[in-house]
Amino acid sequence: MDAPLPVALPPPGHVLGPFADIAEGTAGVFEFREGHLRVEIFVLRHLGGVVGYVNDCPHRHLPLDGMPGRFLTREGTLIQCVNHGAKFRIEDGVCIDGPCLGSGLTPVAVAVVDGLVVLAAPPRRLSRR
Ligand code: FES
Question: Hey, what CATH topology would domain 15-119 get?
Answer without folding.
Answer: Rieske Iron-sulfur Protein (2.102.10)
